[in-house]
Amino acid sequence: MLTIITNNKHITKKYDKPYLINSDQPMMNTKYRISKYLTSVFCGLPIDIETRNKYFLRIRQLLLDKLVVIENRLKKQKKNRQTTTYIKFSHGRRTWYLGFYIPCLFCSNVCAYVMSRNRKVCQNCRSKVIVTPTPPPQDTFKNYCQSKQIVSKRIGVTYTKKVSMHSGTGNYLVTYSNLGINKQFKTMKEQEKYKKRFKNSLKTHKNKWNYTNNRFESKPVISKH
Q1: Residues 107, 210: one domain?
Q2: So which domain of life are we looking at (predicted)?
């Protein structure tokens, strides 16, 4: 027996008596059941017969695909992913939601979605089955000293970046040093272009360099932890 749960007034008014389905097989397969379900719903909605024939096969396939996705989601064991139990069908200015009746495990409400690990819950009971993973441990700071040579081809310079532990406060100290030119300029115009690029980059990296005595000196940056 197929049971249709709906709150649509057109369908409830259309079927004041049970909608009978005949089959020559002892067990109806899923495709046949969905076809009969869709036929009964379409006959109860204010849709002309041409529109029914136009969208019938497409909506039936969407419902079949949705059923497969629901079953796969319930079997999976990954995290708190969820899958809706319905599809949306619009015609003109009207919209209908067609789906599968899956009751909540904790109350009598209908599930708008299902979750992995066979969790069937409504929105009100969702918090009862949510498993919050334990946050990973935070990285602990270690006492180390590391230097890295930075080469910037875009602005044609090289410099050394050094990260070390400040002995007095225990904070990390970042210093930039050994600023140099890393490009052979063919013309003065090209040299001026790269010089302009470097000066523009200093506007967004004021914490790296000081401009004193017509040259650039590194500025230490302290990082707290």
Answers
A1: no
A2: Eukaryota
For residue 84, tell me if it sits in a domain: yes
**Full residue range of the structural domain in which residue 101 is found:** 9-128
Q: What is the mean pLDDT of the chain?
A: 78
**For the chain, how far is it from start to end, CA to CA, in angstroms?**
66
On the question of pLDDT at 15 being above 60, the answer is yes
Residue 4: inside a domain, yes or no? no
Number of domains present in the structure of the chain: 2
213 φψ region: left (φ > 0), alpha (ψ -120 to 50), beta (else): left
Contacts 24+ apart (CB under 8 A), 147-156: 151/182, 152/182, 153/182, 153/183, 154/197, 155/194, 155/197, 155/198, 155/201, 156/181, 156/182, 156/183, 156/185, 156/194, 156/197, 156/198
Angle at the Cα of 7 (from 32 to 44), degrees rounded to 5?
50
**Distance between CA atoms of residues 210 and 103, nearest Å:** 68
Question: Do residues 212 and 151 share a domain?
Answer: yes
Q: Return the pLDDT at 61.
A: 95
Same domain, 26 and 91: yes
How many other C-beta atoms can be found within 10 angstroms of the C-beta atom of residue 21?
15
> What pLDDT digit, counting tens, does each position of 179-222 carry?
777 666 667 777 777 777 776 776 666 655 554 444 455 555 44
- Which backbone phi and psi does 133 adopt, to 5 degrees? -70, 150
Using a cut of 0.70, tell me whether the model's pTM lies above it.
no
